[in-house]
Amino acid sequence: MGTTASQLGKDLLSEYQELTFLTKQEILLAHKRFTELLSKEEKDLPNTRVSMERILSLPELKSNPFRERICHVFSTSAHQDGSLTFEDFLDLLSAFSDSATLEIKSHYAFRIFDFDDDGTLDCGDLEKLVNCLTGETDDTRLGPEEMRQLINNILEESDIDKDGTVNLSEFQHVISRSPDFVR
Amino acid sequence: MARNVNFALDYPLMETGLESPVDEDGVHDLFNQLIAEQSQNGKLSEAYELQQLQRDLEEEEEEEDRDRVTYLSGPRQDLRERRRQREADQQDDNATDSLMSERWSSATMKILSSMPSRTIGRSRGAIISQYYNRTMQLRRHRQSRPSIKDLSRSARPSIRGYGMETDSADTDAAEVTKTQYLVNNLQNLSLSDRIRMLRAMPLSVAAKSELRSLALKKVKRPHPGSQIPCCSRLKYYIIIAFRQSWYSWLSFLHSLQLWQVALKRVSGRFGTGVLSYFLFLKTLLFFNVFLFVVTGAFLVLPQAVHPPALSDERRPFSGLELLTGAGYFSDTVMYYGYYSNYTLRQHCTDDGDGQKLSVSNGTSVECVLRHLSYNMPLAYFFTIGFAFFITCIILVYSMSKSFGQSFRIDKSHSILAMKVFCSWDFKVIKKTSVKLMSENICTQLKELLAEVNHKHVMITSCQKLLKVMVYSLAWAICIAGTTACALSIYFFSQYMHQNLQERSQSPLKAQNPLLNEASLLALPMLVSVINLLLPGLFNLAAWMEDYQSPSVCTYVAIGRNLMLKVSILGVLCYHWLGRVAADFNGIMCWESFVGQELYRFLLIDFIFTLLDTLLGELLWRLFSQKVLKRRRKPVFDIARNVLDLIYGQTLAWLGVLFTPLLPAVQILKLLLLFYIKKSSVMMNCQSPRKPYRVSQMTTIFITLLCFPSFIGASVCVTYTMWSITPSSSCGPFRGLKTMFQAGKLWVQELEKDNPKLSILARAHAYLVENPFFLFVGAGIFLIVIYFHSQVVDGQRKIISLLQEQIENEGDDKKFLITRLQSIHEQKRTPARRLTSQDSSC
Fold first, then answer.
1. Residue B83 with chain A: CB contacts under 8 Å
2. Considering only CA atoms, which of B357, B337, B361, B339 is closest in space to residue B347?
3. Record: contact B695-A171, CB cut-off 8 A
4. Nearest Cα residue in chain A from B78
5. A157, B243, B446, B627: most buried, per Cβ within 10 A?
6. Distance, in angstroms, between B82 CA and closest chain A CA?
7. Cβ–Cβ under 8 Å, residues A116 and B71
8. What is the ipTM metric for this complex?
């Protein structure tokens, strides 16, 4: 289901309202922004997929270091290329909206941070995560010794069953204890 | 496989003959089902994200002899090599050290990667099972006992109460899948529960809409022999209509949200820290709007419609009134003195010139046409009391909610993990801000690492002594500065007071009225100057002290600023309620005078904030960029600005009793302040470099708004109402001993008029005036607090026990995996030995 025709149907709108955390105005605004990304021919096709490059041209995502992971996580395409339909786009906005539950946010945050998609955050994932956080340039990155220490500390603090990785439940446990997980 | 047979509940799954028993939390259920699926059909599980991994593993399995190491797809190779080098020396001992060591066979890897702890968030089937269990639990909670006549006779009595065996009659046992069970459960939930469950599922919108359409499609057949009575159908329609209107009302409210675009721009550039200042401003605005509506509707409007007879001539309007609030404004509805002390009545006779009022106290005039009467003193008393009471409730509620969000039982561990996982602020979208945030995070991580790993930096006792001396010196400076300012305000106010007294006693003609009015502005200006300059002194002291931890630095700064403001307000309250009220009684309307003073204070505070924004932020930025050639703009000091807001709000609360229109002034001030601060922040500032823990700070600010600010204001107002004699020449309480007496008199009158209400009077006398009930109430609160603290202690103990248990389970898991691996290897090595023997012969 789903359409990218120029107007959203009323029952479709109410369905989206029920299934996501967005309000009616937000859904309409999202629809407007999404259709701006489409070319003229694509506007009439239902269920168009927009490629990752075009999604990444949105100003909200352009400077975000996690932009590619975000596209991959929310994409339902069979080719795993990060392209999004309108419904995937709504999923994205819903997960980042203010009224989303903590569980949804932590679930998607975990998937975004899981760079190799294996269901846990192991040392490689954590290293990539810290590098994304600290930025692109070399003078803001941590040195290899500091990185190793940091990862050891993180695993010591959050890996409860001591298997060397942080799985979803452990991640959610850490998140639930931090009041600043606002996003 | 061991079976956990639950006799308590009759799960329909057990009847359909699935091998695995369904457990309450569904984790073991997933494991068994996943293994069963894999072994039954041998194809990939529904975890399509793991398909790539699985395919690689199966390819590896075909190339048999490489059991030692699994080379997975490309990008991970170099990482594994690095890790192998690190663990080269550890390979011999502790095979159980980490489950990510590469010595597992591909079969083991396959099982590892499809373990429930790794797939619980990933595979669709796992999520659906998890939500099936949750909906089941929710149904059990919501289920009310169905009446016996609705059930078939053959149902066993013990399970009649649950009503869920009626499901099996409807569903076709042969084709049931997890999805259908979930859909079934969703149907049986109420609409709001269903919507909530659907929203909370971490599936894609397409999958959720499928579930929803399935849930809506199947119509639940009504039980045989039971009709839906027409009144419940009507109730159903009413509920639907109500829900539709509620949704549209919510959307409408959301569209009305004040300043949404502006707040988004601020948060996009500066993050959640600076945003919290503006949100706090918005909260204060709503408090003031509420106050204004209440006082406006109950006090200002009735009095404005029935103006009292004016005794003096009105002073002409000159522009100075806007600043001083005196002059023309002093005889308007703005101040306490204007309000009448009698019951307002509508005119009963039809003479054309408006309101003829009966001036006597409380004697009723029989009105033929209208009986509308409005007891002004009582209204004044109860309106103020009611407004304060409701504000108190709202404040305490928001404070406890905010506190509940930011307080955690187990705060000591996992600072680093929390920082890494939670510190990225996704609201920020501007590129330079993103870069700045990355730099901040990097610095914070480095600092935290240093703090965590090198906990004890040895400092000599000489250095310690030096540190202590520096701290005490800084504190001494701050306290001395605060005391000096408080004393200066005290003496200056005394001087102004004497001046005023002399002037009121000397003849009118010898004075310059404008100069007199202007001199009233001197005290507010002094206070505002102190408020502006002294925080600078505190900053200097903090720079001298050089705190290690930035949060301690923030708390110390807040504490010092708070101390300053509390002492200033204390001195001022003493001046107004102690000196002015006592000395001016009978000479003039002291309440109006105090109201005017508060108006002046509020206004001058606003003007100085404006000046500070212009000078402090704009000029400083120009100066630092052009002259000092610094790259960075000045930092927006959130804590100081929020404390300024709290100070202004305290003044407004103090003044409501004396100036019922003061909330309107405060509303205007806050509106203007928002736009000015927003433009200034966008142009001139950058976000704070130090880490800012938003929710903790917000809790602190709401607490400060409640405790020193609101409680102080209400204590002052209560003291005024309870003990101070109102002035005898003006205001609604003239002639009474205290303002509180108005209430007492009313109760006595009620009793006189209607003897049956004497119970009310007696209850009032016992409850309000008897301190015994206060003690009982306080005792009950203390007991409740004690119980809650015991509960929290117990929960802490349970948490540590559970953590131990999870660690043990992790050890079990590692043990089982290594055993599995060794058995697998044993099975393969005889085969290999045979083939190698064959080839060698």
1. 123
2. B357
3. no
4. A124
5. A157
6. 11
7. no
8. 0.79
Query: Which residue of B lies nearest to A141 if distances are taken between CA atoms?
Result: B442
| Contact between chains at B414 and A157 (C-beta distance less than 8 A) | yes
Residue B353 pLDDT class (50, 70, 90 cuts): very low
Q: Which tops the pLDDT comparison, B677 or B420?
A: B677
pTM of this structure: 0.69
* More confident of the two residues B6 and B104: B104
Substitution target in B213, B245, B422 with the highest count of A β-carbons within 10 Å is B422
- Please list every residue in chain A whose beta carbon sits closer than 8 Å to the beta carbon of residue B430: 63
- The residue among B817 and B71 whose pLDDT is bigger is B817
What number of helices (H) and strands (E) belong to chain B? 33, 2
Distance CA A121, CA A134 (A): 18
| Per-residue pLDDT at B490 | 93
Determine how many CB atoms are found less than 10 A away from the CB of residue B293: 12
Contact B429 A63 (CB under 8 A): yes
Confidence at residue B1, expressed as pLDDT on a 0 to 100 scale: 41
**Residue B373 is inside which H or E element, if any?**
strand B373-375
d(CA B803, CA B816): 20
The answer to whether B338 touches B303, Cβ cutoff 8 Å, is: yes
DSSP B345: E
- Helix, strand, coil shares of chain A, percent, nearest 5, are 60, 0, 40
Closest CA to A65 of A54, A56, A73, A53: A56
Write out the E strands in B744-788.
none
Q: How confident is the model at residue B568 (pLDDT cuts 50, 70, 90)?
A: very high
CA B174 to chain centre: 50
Of A25, A76, A162, the CB nearest to B204: A76
Q: What is the Cα–Cα distance from B62 to B69, expressed in whole angstroms? A: 14
Rounded CA gap, B42 and B107, in Å? 13
B804 touches chain A (CB under 8 A): no
Residues in B closer than 8 angstroms to A175, CB to CB, are 421-422
Which residue of A33, A62, A63, A126 to mutate against B (max B Cβ within 10 Å)? A63
- B71-97 tens-digit pLDDT: 333 334 444 444 444 444 344 334 334
**Chain-centre distance of CA B640, in angstroms?**
20
Q: Which of B113, B206, B434 sits opposite A1 (nearest CB)?
A: B206
Measured between CB atoms, which of A15, A104, A134 is closest to B438? A134
C-alpha distance from A77 to closest chain B C-alpha (Å):
11
Of A19, A65, A141, the CB nearest to B199: A19
Q: Which of the four pLDDT bands, split at 50, 70 and 90, describes residue B363?
A: very low
Is 50 exceeded by the pLDDT of residue B468?
A: yes
A103-112, B261-270, B367-376, B570-579: the lowest-pLDDT one: B367-376
d(CA A20, CA A89): 11
- Distance in Å, alpha carbon of B425 to nearest chain A alpha carbon: 5
Mean pLDDT of chain B: 72
* B791: confidence class by pLDDT, cuts 50, 70, 90: very high
Do residue B49 and residue A87 have CB atoms under 8 angstroms apart?
no
Identify the bridge partners of residue B635 per DSSP, sorted by sequence position.
B686
User: Which of A118, A122, A151 to mutate to probe the B interface, most B CBs <10 Å?
Assistant: A118
Q: Which helix (H) or strand (E) holds B393?
A: helix B376-406
Which of the 8 DSSP states describes residue A18? H
pLDDT above 50 (res B334): yes
Q: Do A182 and B695 touch (CB under 8 A)?
A: yes
